[in-house]
Amino acid sequence: MMARWAVIGLGSLGVAATVVPFIPSDEWWIRIWDFPRIQVAVLLAVMLGAVPFSLPIRRRRTAAFAVALTVALGWQIFAILPYTPIVATEAKAAENCDQRSRIRLLVANVLKSNRNAEPLLSLLDRLRPDILVLVETDAWWDTQLAPLKESYPYGVAYPQENGYGMHLFSRFELIGPEVRFLIDDYVPSIKTGLLLPSGARIDLYGLHPKPPPLQDTARRDAELMIVGREVRMETAPAIVAGDLNDVAWSRTNSLFQEISGLLDPRIGRGPYATFNANWPFLRWPLDHVFFEDSFQLLHLAVAGNIGSDHFPFFVALCHRPAAEAEQEQPRPEPSDVEAADEAIEKGREEETD
């Protein structure tokens, strides 16, 4: 009897977790169910397998319950399937690359309460990235990161005590770096040009919008759409990197890609979950690096534990303009443009409330 009610209860929870994200709302308690799709899919699969052993097989209610589980499981698989090796990659791998056109980038949420910088510094010694985008940095972290200036002569520092501090370190010359506040006046982002050793100029955007558990997602979505629209309008090749507090398979992430035209290296490779480093069975991809189709992928990895609740995300790229003919850039439909405009308007309206 207990097994029967456990299957009904957990199976119903899985179905509900699948249905709730269809509600057209920015409320955090709705949007948060975009995150654990892999975990919900596993739950649904286990409950579906348990139905013949726990419930009366010949009853219509059992059949209806099994159908509900099957449909929900199918939808979850459909949502996460692009982030598996089963499908074709969106960002193609570079077969060879001029050393002067290579970019090694590391994104890391250091966790403001983390007071041990040594794991991060050791990781940097091992990976030797060209660009670092670090978030949740405060005054303590600003002091700990100061020695990096010897290896990274260019940078932007904006430490804060509110969990939204940000640091950018670069081996490449920065062109017109600026700290911007696109929605909230206490949530910074960084935009800068980068001069590669090849002589090419690219744009880099560093982001860390607010996470859903702290409020609804309207402001987060608006910030992403603002940047996506700006990327589409700019002529320089762009990279967008940071802790976006959104999963790869969310509707907002998909819309951001359509609006910006940027590629996601996870598609066709795997989820590469970066959060939560402390919960082995509850992890999802929150840290991202998107890039235009003039870049190809050299390497993609989730790096080791640095004492944060996020794992660092490492991406190595090759800037190769000829790659534009080899990769398909996401393109927005008129409805996508309208949805992005609405998201920006709604986020700005909430900002003034």
UniProtKB/TrEMBL annotation:
<keyword id="KW-0614">Plasmid</keyword>
<dbReference type="InterPro" id="IPR036691">
    <property type="entry name" value="Endo/exonu/phosph_ase_sf"/>
</dbReference>
<protein>
    <recommendedName>
        <fullName>Endonuclease/exonuclease/phosphatase domain-containing protein</fullName>
    </recommendedName>
</protein>
<keyword id="KW-0472">Membrane</keyword>
<dbReference type="InterPro" id="IPR005135">
    <property type="entry name" value="Endo/exonuclease/phosphatase"/>
</dbReference>
<keyword id="KW-1133">Transmembrane helix</keyword>
<dbReference type="GO" id="GO:0003824">
    <property type="term" value="F:catalytic activity"/>
</dbReference>
<feature type="compositionally biased region" description="Basic and acidic residues">
    <location>
        <begin position="343"/>
        <end position="353"/>
    </location>
</feature>
<feature type="region of interest" description="Disordered">
    <location>
        <begin position="323"/>
        <end position="353"/>
    </location>
</feature>
<feature type="domain" description="Endonuclease/exonuclease/phosphatase">
    <location>
        <begin position="108"/>
        <end position="310"/>
    </location>
</feature>
<feature type="transmembrane region" description="Helical">
    <location>
        <begin position="62"/>
        <end position="83"/>
    </location>
</feature>
<feature type="transmembrane region" description="Helical">
    <location>
        <begin position="37"/>
        <end position="55"/>
    </location>
</feature>
<keyword id="KW-0812">Transmembrane</keyword>
<dbReference type="Pfam" id="PF03372">
    <property type="entry name" value="Exo_endo_phos"/>
</dbReference>
